[in-house]
Amino acid sequence: MTRGGGPQAGPGLLVVLVGAIGIGPVLTYGLSATSELVISDLGITAAQFGLLATVCFACAAVGNATLGRLADRASDMALMCTIFLLAAAALGLAGVPGGYVLLVIAFGLSGVAQSFTNGVTNRILVQRVTAARRIRWAGIKQSGVQASQLVASLSFPVLAVWVGWRGASLVSILLAAALLVLTWRVLRATPVVVDACEDADSGPAPGDAGDAHGRSAETTPAPSGHGSMVWALAGLGFLTGVGVQATNVYVPLFAVRELGFSLVLGGATAAVAGAIGVTARIGWAHVMSRGVPAGTLLVALAGTALTGAGAFFAAGATGWSPLLWLAVALHGASALGVSVVLMGTLLRSIPAESMASSSGVVTAGMFGGFTLGPVMMGLLISGPGGFQLGWVAVGGIYMVCAVLGLALRRRTRS
């Protein structure tokens, strides 16, 4: 029920939320899928290509860390429109034949566009979506990143064959423009739902373990500032982010160079990871909404991601392509689902008035990891150890994530 008896949030709002999460990464995923063309066209090294993603994620990390308080005060409409306008500007700059430096600037803008997406979309969930649907909707909207990976990884290589990778970037502006128009219409038509007090009167949300706010027993709201749980989630997000983007950015290049895939088939590896990631995020959100503790889920996800890193290593050692597809599937099903657990925990424990800033802290942790991952992998694969050393490093990171997940599970059970 909404204030004033207005209509409840519908599919249009969910599309807008998914689009806001997914539009910023389009540039990174699209150019990663055509990395062989970008590298040869610009005459850069693999490490320099990885630096592009590093710039993007660094700008996003700084933005999340510094703009959270501002986002708490800005309107949903202003923030959402800013997201799509910045993403469109980034895609437009990338389409201009101005060399490597201009592309660095484009990736920086793309990162700024991702600075407050989790904060504002989480706040919209808290204020405009009833508690009964909130965690599940969080899983769907977080899958926007993997939807972006799927669409960009499939479309950019195909478009690049016809109009080049710059042309593919320019065509993608149409997607940002369409989402901007839809956002303007949907947000104006979707009112604020019952507030926290009204939620408490209505009792626990069906399918959610915890209290009437959808909070789990494992977390408690931070009365002021950012509590230890927020910082712990940010740390886990950082480590997972290193492994996620070290893999995402270089999987197409790994497939092309190490296993002899074509450009389109190499892009398809990232697309498959994205498709599986979409399903995984929705699925893990469903599991979490049934009351499974975050620590338990994080241990399971880290263990599966570690197995995926081993499969990547084995694929490179043997040259056997089925192992690569197995690795891609494991990566999509596990590492790409961690953000759902992190955001779901915030939705259970953080009040709406500080949701943007708390989400910003956790997201800054993830983007900090995203920043380190590509440059780390780029340096490793450019050295004598090659991709094999890179996959060992990724596996080591997931081992640490598993240990931290175990620690979190013990803490929340005490």
Summary?
The protein is 80% helix and 0% strand.
Protein architecture, described:
- This protein is mainly α.
- It has one domain (7-196, 226-413): Growth Hormone, Chain: A (Up-down Bundle).
- Helix content is 80%, strand content 0%.
- The two termini are 37 Å apart.
Q: What is the rounded Rg? A: 20 Å
What is the CATH architecture term? Answer: Up-down Bundle
Relevant CATH superfamily: MFS general substrate transporter like domains
CATH class category name: Mainly Alpha
Calculate the mean pLDDT score and round it.
83
Q: How many domains comprise the coordinates?
A: 1
How is the main sheet built?
none
Question: What's the total number of strands?
Answer: 0
Extract low-pLDDT stretches: 1-6, 195-225
Give the arrangement of secondary structure elements:
Elements: H1 11-23, H2 26-33, H3 35-42, H4 46-73, H5 76-94, H6 100-113, H7 117-128, H8 131-142, H9 144-171, H10 173-189, H11 196-202, H12 228-259, H13 263-289, H14 294-318, H15 321-333, H16 338-349, H17 355-382, H18 386-413
Helix pairs in contact: 1-8, 1-9, 1-10, 2-9, 2-12, 4-6, 4-17, 5-6, 5-7, 5-10, 7-8, 7-17, 8-13, 8-16, 9-13, 12-13, 12-15, 12-16, 12-17, 12-18, 13-15, 13-16, 14-15, 14-16, 14-18, 16-17, 17-18
